[in-house]
């Protein structure tokens, strides 16, 4: 846990490219050998950090929606929460791009990246099915496909948000994506009532 937290701190402060395992070890108060023993490489550690951030995000959203009755309103709240957290971690986009680029030439890295993305897609599809309840049954899109759609949507939006640095443009894009999910994926009216705050 200390190493993951230290890595996230270093990546946030210095950027992925400018952070070494020695920097992370120093921040964690452990030896570089211990960091290397647990993660073998900076790339593996970065993937573990990404997985940890994703797990914490989904745990928080799932704990909030679990006691709620499945509804479109709660599903949209959950989508907005995920997007809000993706935006809060926009500084991680360059690291994700670098890891994806490395996976094109490294078979082991590609498998680890693929496993991470499969896990995220499964979390998204399971979460969507849970919060939508019977509405998911009426969708022409299967839950696992919905997970893949959301994975690509959030990934692309995160990269766009980090590179464009135009908050108003990203807000417009997110609202348009939300409308597309409602209209074409869930086949629901475009302007449902949506809570401004966490559902009660």
> What is the CATH fold-level name of the largest domain?
Tetracycline Repressor, domain 2
At the fourth CATH level, what is the homologous superfamily of the largest domain? Tetracycline Repressor, domain 2
The rounded Rg comes to 18 Å
N/C terminus separation: 32 Å
Average pLDDT rating: 82
CATH architecture of the largest domain: Orthogonal Bundle
Q: What's the total number of strands?
A: 0
What are the secondary-structure elements, in order, as H or E? HHHHHHHHHH
Query: What share of the residues lie within helices?
Result: over 70%
The CATH class assignment of the largest domain is: Mainly Alpha
Low-confidence stretches: none
**Structural class assignment:** mainly alpha
Structural descriptors:
mainly alpha, Arc Repressor Mutant, subunit A, 10 helices, 0% strand, Tetracycline Repressor, domain 2, 2 domains, single chain, 200 residues
Short description:
With 200 residues, this protein is mainly α.
Protein model, in words:
- By secondary structure, this protein is mainly α.
- It folds into two domains: 1-40, Homeodomain-like (Arc Repressor Mutant, subunit A), CATH 1.10.10; 42-185, Tetracycline Repressor, domain 2, CATH 1.10.357.10.
- The chain has ten helices and no strands.
- Helix 6 (93-103) crosses helix 7.
- The longest helix is centred in the middle third of the chain and has 26 residues, at 107-132.
- The model has no long low-confidence stretch (mean pLDDT 82).
Layout of SSEs?
Blueprint: H1 2-14, H2 21-28, H3 32-39, H4 42-65, H5 72-88, H6 93-103, H7 107-132, H8 134-137, H9 143-164, H10 167-185
Helix pairs in contact: 1-2, 1-4, 2-3, 4-5, 4-7, 5-9, 6-7, 7-9, 9-10
